[in-house]
Amino acid sequence: MHTIINIGRSFGSRGGYVGHTIGEKLGIPFYDNDLICQAAEESGYSRSLFAKAEEKNSFFSMSSFFPSSRIGFLDGGYVNENMLFKIQSEVIRSIAEKGDAIIIGRCADYILRDLKCLNVFIGAPDEWRIARLMESEGLDADEAEKLMRRKDRTRQTYYNYYTFGQWGHASNYHLCVDSSVLGVEGTADFIIDFGRKAGLVK
After folding, report:
1. 34 lies in a domain?
2. What distance in Å separates the CA atoms of residue 156 and residue 51, rounded to the nearest whole number?
3. Do 23 and 83 share a domain, yes or no?
4. Which of 38, 77, 131, 136 has a CB 3.0–4.6 Å from the CB of 62, allowing a cystine?
5. Degrees, nearest 5: CA angle 191-196-198
6. Rg of the chain over CA atoms, in angstroms?
7. Whole-prediction pTM value?
8. How many domains are contained in the chain?
9. What is the rounded distance in angstroms from the CA atom of residue 189 to the CA atom of residue 192?
10. CATH number where 23 lies
11. Chain Cα centroid distance, residue 49
């Protein structure tokens, strides 16, 4: 059995840091946006295609992203966001089939719903997230809140559209946790302990 941990997170909750810490503690590869793009590139796709994954109602020229041998199966040589999600799903499934993995975002819990995975959502109170964003991004409180709400809205729209579920809703995950309570390392330890007790983490 592979250990697959899929992590959804609200913006500013430090969910990516938690996932990276879990990976270090367990010795498991960690896939965030950059590394999923790298995995896509290794599969013959361009990482620039995946950098556009959250753009909406867009069409991209296939010739910019694929070798010519891969273009023929898509009408007109263009890819829209639905085609992009299918490609992304193939890359994520390939990652999960190869071995243990921690995957951040990108609807991985839905894409891998037929596999035995630990699905986690990491959140935190708005005030705590705003304070972290002010510190990390050098923003004032108003700017940090606007950024937080815009990013959350983008993630929610993307997740709900492709999964027919509700982003951040407890029923979609094995565990929902507030990272402000235990901090990054404590939250990572808590998730690992939960996963082991649930028989989903080796």
Report:
1. no
2. 18
3. no
4. 77
5. 95
6. 17
7. 0.83
8. 2
9. 5
10. 3.40.50.300
11. 16
